[in-house]
Design a protein that fits this description.
about 180 residues, 9 helices
């Protein structure tokens, strides 16, 4: 698997990692836990179960060939010739789409950490967390749908479309702002 996609995946999972679970195939994220539970009240077994489901939920995004455009755009963002950058990007996307199995990588990264001080003192509920994750997964889906090699070689496009996605803007939606404010991150 490409290093850029692994880093992208780790960033996504780490930044959202108050962790949760997912309903594989439904497109709607759920931990399966009682919605009124506070994040700080989750038992170790609930955390473990939620983290496992969370990884499964986000694997769907990175097993989609459109996620390969992240690699193509990242690796060609500094090529000055747009034709050369676009051609190189397409090659990278094709190679990447042949290796989309992230299961081993996600197991190795193990980005879910509900035992951290930040989440162990979080007063947000499971429902607030799930709403934030659903908001972020919708935005991630929109991002992946919008990517193509047409902007290969464009550093500014890469910065604003991909890198900025993981900056402070990762929690910019109303559900995520509510979650972050309730957790006092």
């Amino acid at each position: 698997m490409n290093k850029v996609r692994a880093i992208f995946c780790l960033l996504l999972l780490t930044l959202l990692s108050a962790c949760g679970g997912g309903s594989e195939g439904t497109g709607v994220y759920t931990t399966g836990l009682t919605k009124t539970l506070r994040i700080s009240e989750l038992s170790n077994s609930q955390v473990e179960s939620a983290c496992s489901a969370y990884t499964k939920f986000f694997t769907k995004f990175f097993s989609d060939p459109s996620s390969c455009y992240i690699d193509g755009l990242a690796e060609t963002r500094t090529i000055s010739s747009s034709n050369q950058a676009q051609n190189q990007c397409e090659i990278i996307v094709q190679e990447c789409s042949l290796d989309l199995d992230l299961n081993d990588t996600l197991k190795d990264l193990n980005p879910c950490d509900l035992q951290s001080l930040e989440t162990r003192n979080c007063n947000a509920t499971v429902a607030q967390y799930e709403a934030c994750v659903n908001e972020r997964s919708a935005k991630l889906g929109d991002l992946l749908d919008s990517l193509s090699c047409q902007e290969a070689g464009n550093q500014q496009y890469y910065n604003t479309q991909i890198e900025d996605f993981f900056g402070e803007a990762i929690f910019s939606g109303p559900s995520c702002r509510e979650f972050v404010n309730t957790c006092n991150f």
